[in-house]
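Reply to thread "Modeling small-molecule complexes from scratch"

Following up on the discussion above, here's a worked example others can learn from. I took a protein sequence and the SMILES for fe (ii) ion and predicted the complex. Inputs first:
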Amino acid sequence: MFSTEGFSSNYSLLYHIHPPTVIIRTGEPIDVSPKAATENILKHRCLNGFQINPNDDYLKSRKIVLFNNDVQITIAAPTKGMNDNVFYKNADADEVLFIHEGTGILKTQYGQLPFSYGDYLVVPRGTIYQISFDSPDNRLFIVESFSPITFPKRYLSKYGQLLEHSPVCERDIRKPQDLQAIDQKGEFLINVKKKGYLYPIWYGAHPFDVVGWDGCEYPYAISIHDFEPITGRVHQPPPVHQTFDANNFVICSFVPRLFDYHPQSIPAPYNHSNIDSDEVLYYVDGDFMSRKHVERGMITLHPAGIPHGPHPGTVEKSIGAKETKELAVMVDTFHPLKMTADALGIENDTYITSWIE
Ligand SMILES: [Fe+2]
């Protein structure tokens, strides 16, 4: 029985060959908690995400750049997958792995999720997984959520079905497949993340010894390319881009779409002061009509408290444009984010004055 919120929310039953409780030995916990590198949080920031150092160890490749008590935002350039007998479990947070570059397979107790460019892999906390990549060139944008990742309530029927006006629907959800039911005894290392520490725990049986499972708690994949944008005659507010919901933050997808079609519309967004949200934008691909000097893998942080908006010239340039090819992932948090030393190391610190004409 794998249950959540005590025994009062979603659960799954996994039918194991061996008991999942046989611990052989344990190692010293490793501190992997993020540390704030600066107290200066009222500043527009720009990080060059693709400057993060690649690492052949998947867990070490993950660099937390922004965090608060609700969410941790991580970028990673792993060059290799995990070894055969090594696994990972985040016991605190649901993980959303956004695949910017690379293909491979996320192997879990529930089966396998092949992934490619543009996939969101949604991994509920407690899921034991192993990741493999087809090549060394991988770029991941990872959101760790300390509350369950769900679809926005307004898109769900009272019984939980995604409604017709939702930008994603059940058809877009890919469930784990090809359950392997590996009947193997030996030493299997599960690195368990709990309250900022990574605990190495060796088990006596392969964790993917599940012959079948049923229930509503399982990892799944959904592609950003399947997100159907909501467009209008005039500017649609940012919530139309919302893809996932969580406690005190949201995840949004900006995808190629037609621009506003009122004859006098100005497609570029307004200057805005979203006083209750820090806005994090991760630039994936395409053109970005409201920004200049944008590169793939760039992250901007526009904190609550000071307004931001289109860069000079981009409003005029957007007039008459029919569509955008932009692709981006946004994380809006309702509490301020802190930055780590890894973030400061890839910061473009001239960004704050980039609105000067
Ligand atoms: Fe914004």
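What I'd highlight from this example: The pocket of fe (ii) ion is lined by residues 272, 279, 302, 308 (CB under 6 Å). DSSP finds three helices and 26 strands in the chain. Questions welcome below.
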